[in-house]
Design goal:
By secondary structure, the protein is α+β, with helices and mostly antiparallel strands. It has 2 domains: about 55 residues, no CATH class; about 90 residues, no CATH class. Helix content is about 40%, strand content about 15%. A two-stranded antiparallel sheet has the order 1-2. It has a two-stranded antiparallel ribbon with strand order 3-4. Helix 3 packs antiparallel against helix 5. The radius of gyration is 17 Å and the shape is elongated. The two termini are about 35 Å apart. About 25% of the residues are buried. Bound molecules: zinc ion (3 copies). The site of one zinc ion has 7 residues, from helix 4 and helix 5.
């Protein structure tokens, strides 16, 4: 599965939080970093109509585009790699993980909870992407790889 630019666009629009300010709702300021948008910052249309026309600066948009791209590349790998399906150590997966965590660090998103142990996944844990269908679209989640770490189970959030 590869991600088209159109699909990526649709996904990135779902990132909006309902708490946008008036300036953000009309696209005068970036939906994510809140800088005033102009020719220099770029002004990327995130969809919407009427009084709801959120836009983003090029830096924020590209960071999220990269995050999504690294997520899908890693996910593609884990779905077809025999080592990954056995939860064995896999160097290719490790490479994807490094790129993914670097991209994730630029978009300020948590890894979320592991669907198996229901505890928050930490960047140091062994984990992999887990894509699922939610009520309002795809959920770009993660799951521990192999047995969930004891530390996660005993960790108190
Ligand atoms: Zn921005
Ligand atoms: Zn692998
Ligand atoms: Zn877990």
């Amino acid at each position: 599965m590869s991600l088209t630019a159109q699909q990526a666009d649709r996904v990135l629009r779902l990132f909006h939080v309902p708490s946008l300010t008036a300036d953000q709702r009309i696209g005068a300021k970036c939906s994510w970093c809140t800088i005033p948008l102009n020719e220099r910052t770029g002004r990327i249309d995130l969809g919407g109509a009427g009084a709801w026309t959120p836009h983003a600066c090029t830096t924020c948009y590209d960071a999220r585009r990269t995050w999504l791209d690294t997520y899908y590349r890693w996910l593609d790998h884990t779905r077809t790699c025999h080592a990954c399906q056995r939860a064995d150590r896999c160097l290719t997966s490790l490479g994807h993980r490094v790129l993914y965590l670097a991209a994730l660090g630029q978009v300020d998103r948590p890894l979320g909870d592991c669907p198996t142990c229901r505890h928050p996944i930490q960047p140091g844990d062994r984990f992999e992407p887990r894509l699922s269908d939610g009520q309002s679209g795809l959920i770009f989640g993660h799951t521990h790889t192999g047995p969930c770490p004891e530390a996660a189970v005993n960790r108190h959030p």
